[in-house]
Amino acid sequence: MDVHLFVPCYLDQVHPEVAMATVTVLRRAGCTVHYSDQQTCCGQPMANTGCADDAAVLARRHLDLFAGKTTVCPSGSCTSMVSHHYHDLGLRLSATDEKTMHRTFELSDFLVNVLGVTDLKARFPHKVSLHQSCHGLRELGLGVMSERRDPPKLGPAEVLLAQVEGLTLVMPERRDECCGFGGTFAVAEADLSARMGHDRCDQLSQGDAEYMTGNDQSCLMHLDGIRKRRGKGPKAIHLAEILACQ
Amino acid sequence: MTARVPQFHVDSEKFLADQERVGWHDGALWHLRYKRDLATQVVPDWEKLRDQAAAIKAHVLDHIPTLLSQFITNAEAAGWVVHLAPEADDLKRIVLDLLQKNGVTKAVKSKSMLTEECGLNHHLEANGVEVVDTDLGERIVQLRHEPPSHIVVPAIHLKRGEIGELFHEHLGTAKGEDDPIRLTRAARADLRKRFIGAQAGLTGVNFAVADSGAIVICTNEGNADLGTALQPLHIACMGVEKLIPTAADAGVFLRLLARSATGQPITTYSTHIRGPDPTRPGHQAHLVIVDAGRRRLFADDEHRRALSCIRCGACLNTCPVYRRASGHAYGTTVPGPIGAVLAPAMIGTAKAKELPFASTLCGSCTNVCPVKIDLHDQLLSWRRRLAREGHVPFSKRFAMKIGAQALSYPWLFSLGGKIARTFWGLARKGIPGPHAGWTKHRDLPPAPKQSFRGWWKSDGQNQGNPTNKDQDHG
After folding, report:
1. What stretch of H or E contains B248?
2. 3-state SS, residue B464
3. Where are the alpha helices (DSSP H) in chain A?
4. Cα distance from B432 to chain A (closest Cα, Å)?
5. pLDDT (tens digit, 9 = 90+) per residue, B45-79?
6. What is the pLDDT of residues B337-383, one digit of tens each?
7. Of chain A residues 96-155, which have a CB less than 8 A from chain B?
């Protein structure tokens, strides 16, 4: 299948290894990966600050660039911005735009629920705890939400991690507590955000986890920054990086 | 709501400074969330029950004028004296008049967030009427001269030692006494005297049943029942949004309310009152129906759903921000996610401008809400309204405008990234300017040698996509 890579702006510049791992994983799953360097940002920071007009400028660019294509993104939050929140910006959305939004997938969702691939022949002999990022979980439905009484069904990240050779998955007691990143919240309410991050690091350390993983590098970047500053806790590693390991 | 301007950032930092208390507060509220989860597991079709409640509330919001006139007709037929209070001041005036006409100098009051919102206690006290809050948590914060920090557990921000000191000072308990049972007994003994000495009982209203004219009051302590049973005068105060069509609908909400709030199957006392007690000659029952800004929300299609709230507090308990900031940081009678959604409509966007930003938009509130208010989307929607009205700080708006412009040009984005990576080493010691908050508590990751786009151009695209032979995974 031909897939077009949607690389979140901060991943491109700060964590290219996650996007590189995404390419590896998609290719291993049999996809032909395309990438356009005309892409920049989906507009989420602007949208979450309330600046809908500014977000709309970037949303328009994004929709035109990915028009009608099957798009895969290694971030639940940026995916949700495109697939769910482009409706909020007062944009006039064409049928092609709607199709683009509908055809934008988070990586683990795409692998498991679109391609039907669960075993990436990965090997990662470590204890790993899973941080289920909020937008992927509660907006895209990539897992069972602890608040809801839906029929139990494993999320795609858990399905994929279960197949990784040597990996022991540990779920924290608070399965899906927010890490406190929250975009500009991390800076505007830095103390609160950090306190939430500390607590989440503690929870993700349960069961002597060596690594904490998830499908949103923004949350992981925040958690890992806190981990490094305090000098204890599991190292952050994106799901794509684990799946790329052999 | 309170007249003061909420200062979430400043006030949350004050609470955060006591790290031990934050951990304990978070744990206490998470325990309520945990009990709520257990209680919802035993209800078959919990999610359908939420759908049903949301549908009833949507119907109510669409039919307020009809339901209100039906309710008033039936309430008056049942013997209630109905008063309409368009504003908070009207509520205060009506209640004071009633008390003064009946020569009341001492009144007891069960829990009512509405009267809290309207500042009723203060007004009555200023006019010579002693009002005693009879809910234990409310009594504690009343003795401390502070507002409740939670709508269901008003004193959740306090430790038992602090309550021990308070009771030692006001109720004469032994110094250092912090046993919850002994402290509760002391409060009970004191309250009993107040119940007997009062001449009027004030209550809130949880549900007002349109087709019967009855009201439903839910408490765990029976204090509303005692307050209304002993006094010759009952004044019930309700927001106009408390209307529900039938008693059968109350059944739906009673199943949801206590489970969502504290994990109990139902509140200990769920009392239906339909007018004055016919067995007590001269018993008066008054009902004050308050608008106080609610019509502004009714008229706002985007945000009116917030009026469906049944004040269970579940969104507060689950909110990771509330649990670490405490209710007082919000500066409004109703704190937490629902408070931050109501405040811009109730006290105005200018005053409430910080509150919709007091959230990570994690969405847990939306999932626990028993009447399915889309709380985190409402917060986001208020952020857009605030930005349109110019209530988002200029520095933020400016940064977003510049960002959107710069990110419209891939070459500029690319150049910006290159410059940032070059100076990364300096930034790791602390980012200057408006983003300093990031490095205050976090280390930056090491700078990558090149961006993803750089790698793609030099290596990535050439490493080749899989051939047909590779494609048999899965």
Report:
1. helix B247-262
2. coil
3. 9-14, 16-28, 44-48, 52-65, 76-83, 95-102, 107-109, 134, 156-162, 185-188, 190-204, 217-230, 239-244
4. 12
5. 999 999 999 999 999 999 999 999 999 999 999 99
6. 999 999 999 999 999 999 999 999 999 999 999 999 999 999 999 99
7. 115-121, 134-135, 138-139, 145-150
Q: For residues B447 and B1, what is the distance between their CA atoms, to the nearest angstrom?
A: 49
Give the separation between CA B260 and CA A210, rounded to whole angstroms.
36
Establish if A188 touches chain B: CB-CB under 8 angstroms: yes
Are the C-beta atoms of A65 and A39 separated by less than 8 Å? yes
Q: How far is CA B74 from CA B203, B275, B409, in A?
A: 20, 10, 66
**CATH numbers and ranges of domains, chain B:** 43-292 (3.40.50.10420), 408-463 (no CATH)
CA distances to A48, A83, A100, B338 from A88, rounded to whole Å, are 11, 11, 16, 21
Please judge whether B16 and A120 are an interchain contact, meaning their C-beta atoms are less than 8 angstroms apart. Answer: no
How large is the ipTM?
0.97
Using a CB-CB cut-off of 8 Å, the residues of chain A touching B392 are 49-51
CB contact under 8 A, B441 and A16: no
- Contact flag B26-A150 (C-beta cutoff 8 Å): no
A104: left (phi over 0), alpha (psi -120 to 50) or beta: beta
- Chain A partners within 8 Å of B434 (Cβ): 187
Give the nearest chain A residue to B472 (CA atoms). Answer: A30
Q: Do the beta carbons of residue B233 and residue B277 sit within 8 Å?
A: no
Question: Do B374 and B309 meet the contact criterion of CB atoms below 8 Å apart?
Answer: no
Which domains does chain A carry?
A: 2-114 (no CATH), 119-244 (3.40.50)
A90 touching chain B per CB within 8 A = no
For residues A165 and A123, the answer to whether their CB atoms sit within 8 Å is yes
Distance from CA of A102 to the nearest CA of B (A): 20
The answer to whether B473 touches A28, Cβ cutoff 8 Å, is yes
Q: How confident is the model at residue B422, as a pLDDT?
A: 84
What is the Cα–Cα distance from B439 to B435, expressed in whole angstroms?
8
Q: Look up tokens 């897992």; give the residue.
A: A143
DSSP string, A96-108: HHHHHHHTEEEHH
Smallest Cα distance from B314 to chain A, Å: 10
Write the DSSP assignment of A86-147 as a string of letters: GGGG-----HHHHHHHHTEEEHHHIIIIII-------B--SEEEE---HIIIIIT--S--TT
DSSP state of A218: H
Q: Is the CB of A184 less than 8 angstroms away from the CB of B380? A: no
Q: Cβ–Cβ of A45/B357 closer than 8 Å?
A: no
Contact B214, B247 (CB under 8 A): yes
